[in-house]
Amino acid sequence: MNLDIREIPFSRFGSYFCISKEKDSEDVYIRDVHGGDDAPSKLFQVDILQHGVEQVFEVKSSEVSLSFYLKGERVAEIIMTEEDELHIDVEDVELRLRATKGKYDSLMELEDGMFEYHIYPKELKLMIVNLTGELLVDAPWNIIGNDFIDIRMKEGHFVIESYRTVYQKKEYLPFTQGKAQVERLYKDWFDSMNPRMTGTGYLPSLERASYITWSSVVHPDGVLKDYAMYMSKLWMYNIWSWDNCFNALNLGEKHPELAFAQLKIFMDTQDVSGAYPDFVNDKFISYNCIKPPIFAYVYEQLMEKNDYFKDTHRLKWVYESTKKVMNYYDQYRTFQGRLPHYKHGNDSGWDNASLFHVGMPVEAPDLASFLVRTYDILSSFAERLGEKVEAVRFKERADKMFNLLIERLFDEEGFYGSVGKNAEKIEIRSSLILRLPVLIGYRLEKDVMDQLVSDLEANFETKYGLATESVNSPHYKDNGYWLGPIWAPVTYLFIDALKKNGYEEAGNRLRDKFLELTLVGGMAENFDPHTGKGLVDTSFTWTSSVFLLLLADKVRGD
Question: Where in this chain does the record put each Mannosylglycerate hydrolase MGH1-like glycoside hydrolase domain (predicted)?
């Protein structure tokens, strides 16, 4: 694959290093995603010089290496042999690294050909090693740090290795061997995405999705006790709750341990209240927003994909953790006699959806539906675990909440939300979020489901799938985040619900539209529903994971 690093950063499985190009300036940067997307990521700007003069160069990247070209000739190449190692091979030119340093950042020579760079804001150190070439460094000291750092690499093999505290000397693989090692690793991953899919006509999307999911993983560090698949290494470099579940679902069949790790990250950081964090990175845990519970929904599907998830110990872990989540909503998000509520649009994952334009808190039918579905699944988990009394109790809780949902948030026009301490009806009913009760279609009357499906087809379905705001709504907005664009996880939820509740034709039609969408808009965070253009972050893992799940479904169906 010819990788455009303006859209998809060059990286590898397990690494915090990545390389990308600025869309406006076309400047190329070596970056590091420690600290999440609130931390500075740029380490060095990369330039190519010939006879001391900056040259206009071309960058070409594959899944395993990134190369620099002058007048069609390759002059430098970068690979990531190991997770914390960046290897650079230079021929006939100087590759210059200019540090984007802070006040206290400091570079020092420890011995011939070895410079240690301390990066204070990231609590990170780099060892820059000259293996076979010429390393020239200009970094004048000024009391508390270097005025600037200019590093030039000529004619040879160089390594930049990152670490937290102490550098351990080692023998580095020769460049060609290191490249071959990465090629083998990536081939194994790509093959695991199911080679039967390569003949379906979706190869460009398959290549993007496979690479994005592989290259967006970071290794255990700090808060992260296991490998984590970030949403992206372009802009959104954290692991978010809810998002993580769709990645786990795609990994479940061929990479069950990694799939379980995506869930365990949040179970391990669950608050005493029962709430999962909104997001986690190697340095920070945020509980600002609490997403709806879908762990049980996903785990039920994972058990169908791989017997690994039927293990009693793992099932019990998810079961007990999910019980705490449900207790959180019962104790801390529910007013007496009412349904659980959101305190911000971000709680729902639909940050700026029109349902939330009136105010807060909001009782929403999607949240109630997720909870009903979770109680139903907990009941089945309890049966499997031999907890008969609990199974009955959870089914009763599901029944009670379902009845309350119909009583409080449903009328002849469909589902709606309520707002504020007095639970006033929200008149805005044009968001797709109000149609998510399809998730509990097995509990709804057939005429209610028929009405929901007809509504989807008439007011939300576009050339490429389901818009998140009715295309006829005054609130619809181009590139409006949740006010129109198509999102992968929501698409998956609707397709899954439709196919499981007797609307297979509609589900398959939406599936095929999404697959076609990726050929137009790539693996973006979201998409224009009319043109298919990829919007916001263009290198998103949950989009990639949903694509792979839906493609696998199509291959099985065909």
Answer: 237-543
Query: What is the CATH classification number for the domain harbouring 69?
Result: 2.70.98
**DSSP-assigned beta bridge partners for residue 418:** 363, 425
Q: How many CB atoms lie within 10 A of CB 85?
A: 21
Residues 267 and 299: beta-carbon distance below 8 Å: no
Buried residues in 510-535 as b, exposed as e (16+ CB within 10 A): bbebbbbbbeebbbbbbbbbeebbbb
Whether 387 maps to a domain, the answer reads no
Question: pLDDT at position 198, please?
Answer: 58
pLDDT digits (tens, 9 = 90+) for 73-85: 999 999 999 999 9
The pTM of the whole model exceeds 0.85: yes
Q: Which are the contacts of 52, defined by CB distance < 8 A and separation ≥ 6?
A: 94
In a domain, 44, yes or no: yes
* HEC assignment per residue over 258-301: HHHHHHHHHHHCCCCCCCCCCEECCCCEECCCCCCCCHHHHHHH
Q: Which residue has the tokens 């805005």?
A: 428
Two tokens at 530? 């009319």
Residue 550 above 70 pLDDT? yes
Q: Does residue 334 sit in helix, strand or coil?
A: strand
Structure tokens at 206: 């398959």
Q: Are 37 and 26 in contact (CB under 8 A)?
A: no
R_g over Cα of the chain? 25
Write out the two tokens for 399: 């029944």
Q: 484 near 477, Cβ under 8 Å?
A: yes
* Model pLDDT, residue 93: 96
CB atoms within 10 A of CB 386: 9
d(CA 389, CA 447): 33
CB 192 within 8 A of CB 211: no
One-letter amino acid at 504 equals: E
- Identify the pLDDT of residue 195: 56
> Greatest CA span in the chain, whole angstroms?
80
pLDDT band at 193 (very low <50, low <70, confident <90, very high): confident
Amino acid 197: pLDDT: 60
User: What gap in Å lies between CA 301 and CA 257, rounded to an integer?
Assistant: 15
CA 232 to chain centre: 6
The answer to the question of residue 119 being in a domain is yes
534: three-class secondary structure by DSSP: strand
Q: What percent of the chain is helix, strand and coil (3-state, nearest 5)?
A: 40, 25, 40
The span from the CA of 40 to the CA of 100, in Å, is: 10
What is the Cα–Cα distance from 519 to 481, expressed in whole angstroms?
20
> Do residues 306 and 253 touch, judged by C-beta distance below 8 A?
yes
pLDDT at position 1: 87
The number of folded domains in the chain is 1
In this structure, is residue 526 part of a structural domain?
no
Residue closest to 494 by CA, chosen among 521, 513, 472, 475: 513
List the one residue out of 522, 525, 491 whose CA is nearest residue 506: 491
The DSSP output letter for 125 is: E
Question: Is residue 501 within 8 Å of 449, Cβ to Cβ?
Answer: yes
